[in-house]
């Protein structure tokens, strides 16, 4: 293919990627090193309303000649990053744990605990369904996929209602004398989020592995049977090597997904006891209403994903090169 | 109560609700809104949070749509951030008006994002019988139209209090005593108190109520300098902590919805909650305690002190960066805030208009006001202190950090956030330049 021809084919995709990926990332980077502050002046105002008259100390905007509030915007370098990471001079001497590092710790815990769980669980479920008779397979597959189909916020709300005070699970546990308060301590709140994550994503791993199992070479399995291999040996030496690329694929996708865990944190705990890095970005943007600091948090989130993905991407890259 | 009588009561209540909603529909649908006679043109976009009273006025506003006018009312739980984003934009705001609480109002006003409505009130106010108490004026300019009000009330199970001959608690100390009696005597009430202690807004609001009830000041008078990291702040945290043994262990994740659920399901005997939620205690579909819950002013922290609660209003505001449809928007709002709108939605909230007839559930604000509750702090920088307190207070309640340390951390974080927003959280006094 000629270079010009290649360029014409690739151009639409390249332009779209630049606009939808590179440009927002560049804007986020730019915002993360800036800060815009409105210029305010102290004032005492008299305010009247439904509850009578009050004199209030306020700071109100200054306006330019055409009546627009004046803002001062400047490049602040890494100040927003330092603030998020707790390296700001105002943090010196504070006994408070830094929110970002706490959120990062939980995000890593979530990622590193849900990833092996969904790999092992998904594979086990796929092997089990593969053994089910053909007539039942459709029903079992459809039922297994339900958690993945449910919208994350709806799923998280359903779980919350099941586990909150007087919910189904505490009620049932109470019947056998167990009184567990899932939102009472950090460990139980975190465990609930992790269990939700496994429940929600396991069907994805299952369906990928199940598809992979349909393409395991039957002649290799028959040859292994003739050689006297046990079921475990056939799984260990024939099936699993065949599924290895899919294991990398599922891990890659899930690590990216898990690092952005957000909905269960928002719905189940609202940040109590635990937060994730994605939740932190949301909180800074929506509650603190500070897009500059939120941009810095977003950049740090992307960097975190990139660091986690490096080993997996290197492995995929090597395999791709071998293929060529 | 025998099952037949219970069934009859439920049916009567359901009928009353149906009749009320039927009345509401009749008022909003069959009677042509006044705005139809005005021949308004163009498009009007409004924004507000999603709860029954605002859903009611949104329906009325949208019924103003006609051949020449399209009215859209966006209802979203993210109304606050969407309003701040739209009104703060350097372009024309996509919303011509928004419903905001008084806390958001203070922030938007300080940042110069609101357009006064004084001229429109002067031109149309009399025709639509706008009442003076609805007009939120700042230095004489009408900056908002308040239409509903709220506060925190004490909810209590009247049947239990009567059974154990307990008086209505006037202070937090009395509330704890009543809780101890009920817990000892009632097997199903291991956690008799329910209150919104969820990290963030709920817990910071509880702290604000108790701290103000102790006579605490958040800022040095006339400045934005924080002074809440003091003995009164510690006492406020201690008061909140004293409630924990009587609350569900899930308390630090319990928001107002969870508290309402605990009361409705008969799992809690008392608690301080938003007055606007009172009617839901008698909702025959959701509540198991219909008719059993009574309401009183929130308890004081000190004997003879004011209730540990604040008065709130919600109102409509117009953006400084609004479009050319300012007058049409105002006239649509006149219909949605009219006397007829209040009559048809009387029990949905506590309306500001004098045509509102407070029933059993609507007297909360008046109870609190008469007991001496003050309006929610109006300083625009208060929201930042409130936000930072909400983040760290749980650490003091569970004992991970000392109360003083947590308050100092919140004060330091407030100073930083206030500077980012252009405030001067130091000794600059009112009247001086920033």
Explain what this protein looks like in three dimensions.
The complex is a heterodimer of chains A (324) and B (434). Helix content of chain A is 69%, strand content 9%. The longest helix of chain A is centred in the middle third of the chain and has 33 residues, at 99-131. The model of chain A has no long low-confidence stretch (mean pLDDT 88). Chain A is mainly alpha-helical and 324 residues long. Chain A has helices at 3-32, 79-85, 99-131, 134-149, 152-163, 168-175, 186-213, 218-226, 231-259, 263-269, 277-286, 291-323; strands spanning 34-38, 40-49, 52-61, 71-75. In chain A, strand 2 and strand 3 (52-61) form a beta hairpin. Chain B folds into two domains: 32-150 and 312-362, Periplasmic binding protein-like II (D-Maltodextrin-Binding Protein, domain 2, 3-Layer(aba) Sandwich); 152-308 and 372-420, Periplasmic binding protein-like II (D-Maltodextrin-Binding Protein, domain 2), CATH 3.40.190.10. In chain B, the strands form two sheets. In chain B, strands 1, 2, 3, 4, 5, 9, 10 and 11 form an eight-stranded mixed β-sheet that branches. A three-stranded antiparallel β-sheet of chain B has the order 7-6-8. Chains A and B meet through strand 1, strand 2 and strand 3 of A and helix 4, strand 4, strand 5, helix 10 and helix 14 of B.
């Amino acid at each position: 293919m000629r270079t010009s021809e290649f360029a014409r084919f690739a151009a639409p995709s390249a332009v779209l990627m630049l606009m939808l990926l590179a440009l927002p990332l560049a804007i986020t980077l730019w915002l993360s090193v800036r800060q815009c502050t409105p210029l305010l002046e102290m004032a005492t105002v008299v305010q009247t309303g439904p509850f009578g008259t009050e004199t209030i100390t306020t700071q109100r905007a200054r306006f330019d000649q055409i009546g627009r509030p004046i803002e001062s915007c400047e490049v602040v370098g890494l100040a927003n990053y330092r603030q998020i990471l707790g390296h700001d001079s105002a943090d010196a001497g504070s006994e408070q744990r830094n929110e970002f590092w706490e959120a990062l710790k939980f995000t890593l815990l979530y990622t590193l605990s849900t990833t092996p769980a969904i790999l092992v669980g998904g594979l086990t479920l796929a092997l089990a369904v593969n053994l089910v008779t053909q007539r039942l397979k459709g029903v079992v597959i459809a039922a297994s996929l339900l958690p993945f189909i449910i919208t994350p916020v709806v799923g998280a709300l359903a779980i919350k209602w099941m586990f909150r005070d007087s919910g189904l699970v505490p009620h049932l546990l109470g019947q056998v004398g167990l009184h567990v308060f899932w939102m009472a301590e950090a460990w139980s709140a975190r465990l609930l989020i992790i269990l939700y994550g496994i429940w929600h994503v396991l069907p994805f791993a299952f369906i990928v592995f199940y598809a992979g199992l349909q393409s395991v070479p039957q002649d290799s399995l028959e040859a292994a049977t003739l050689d006297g291999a046990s079921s475990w040996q056939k799984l260990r030496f024939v099936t699993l090597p065949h599924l290895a690329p899919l294991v990398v694929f599922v891990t890659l996708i899930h690590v990216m997904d898990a690092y952005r865990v957000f909905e269960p944190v928002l719905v189940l705990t609202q940040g109590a006891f635990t937060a994730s890095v994605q939740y932190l970005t949301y909180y800074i943007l929506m509650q603190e209403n500070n897009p500059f600091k939120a941009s810095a948090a977003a950049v740090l989130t992307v960097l975190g994903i990139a660091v986690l993905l490096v080993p997996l991407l290197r492995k995929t890259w090597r395999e791709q090169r071998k293929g060529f | 109560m025998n099952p037949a009588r219970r069934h009859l009561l439920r049916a009567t209540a359901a009928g009353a609700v149906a009749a009320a909603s039927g009345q509401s529909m009749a008022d909003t649908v069959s009677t042509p809104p006044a705005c139809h006679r005005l021949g308004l043109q163009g498009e009007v976009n409004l924004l507000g949070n999603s709860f029954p009273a605002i859903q009611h006025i949104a329906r009325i506003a949208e019924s103003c749509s006609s051949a020449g006018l399209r009215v859209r009312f966006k209802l979203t739980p993210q109304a606050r951030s969407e309003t701040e984003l739209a009104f703060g934009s350097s372009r024309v705001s996509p919303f011509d008006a928004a419903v905001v609480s008084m806390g958001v109002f203070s922030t938007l006003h300080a940042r110069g994002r609101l357009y006064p409505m004084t001229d429109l009130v002067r031109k149309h106010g009399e025709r639509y019988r706008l009442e003076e108490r609805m007009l939120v004026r700042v230095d004489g300019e009408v900056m908002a139209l308040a239409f509903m009000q709220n506060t925190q009330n004490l909810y209590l199970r009247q049947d239990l209090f009567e059974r154990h001959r307990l008086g209505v608690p006037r202070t937090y100390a009395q509330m704890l005593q009543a809780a101890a009696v009920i817990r000892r005597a009632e097997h199903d009430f291991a956690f008799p108190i329910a209150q919104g202690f969820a990290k963030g807004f709920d817990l910071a609001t509880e702290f604000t109520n108790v701290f103000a009830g102790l006579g605490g000041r958040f800022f040095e008078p006339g400045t934005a300098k924080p002074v809440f990291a003091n003995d009164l702040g510690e006492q406020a945290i201690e008061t909140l902590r004293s409630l924990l043994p009587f609350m569900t262990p899930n308390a630090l994740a319990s928001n107002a919805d969870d508290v309402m659920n605990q009361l409705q399901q008969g799992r809690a005997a008392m608690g301080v909650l938003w007055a606007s939620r009172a009617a839901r205690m008698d909702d025959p579909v959701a509540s198991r305690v219909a008719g059993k819950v009574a309401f009183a002013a929130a308890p004081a922290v000190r004997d003879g002190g004011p209730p540990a609660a604040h008065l709130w209003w919600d109102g409509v505001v117009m953006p400084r960066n609004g479009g050319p449809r300012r007058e049409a928007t105002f006239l649509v709002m006149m219909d949605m805030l009219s006397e007829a709108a209040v009559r048809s939605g009387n029990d949905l909230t506590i309306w500001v208009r004098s045509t509102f007839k407070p029933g059993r559930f609507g007297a909360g604000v008046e109870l609190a006001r008469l007991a001496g509750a003050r309006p929610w702090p109006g300083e625009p920088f208060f929201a930042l202190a409130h936000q930072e307190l909400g983040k760290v207070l749980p650490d003091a309640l569970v004992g991970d950090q000392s109360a003083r340390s947590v308050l100092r951390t919140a004060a330091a974080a407030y100073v930083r956030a206030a500077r980012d927003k252009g405030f001067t959280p130091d000794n600059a006094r009112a009247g001086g330049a920033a």
